[in-house]
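help with this record:
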Amino acid sequence: MTDRTCEELIGLWRAVFGEAPPISTDPGLTAEVLVRCLPAAEPYAPQAPAMAQLERKAS
């Protein structure tokens, strides 16, 4: 991973846990821990009114 990617992982860690990672470690492991600790997100579902607007614009 690039230095930029590592910096972004550290920033995301801070956002999720409120502090810097406790130790410097493998960036892949850091990413894995972050993904496991992120809250579950609901599946994406487009809103019906927005879809209706798109259909009207297309016609």
DSSP finds three helices and no strands in the chain. The CA atoms of residues 14 and 47 lie 32 Å apart. The mean pLDDT is 77. The first helix runs from residue 3 to 17.
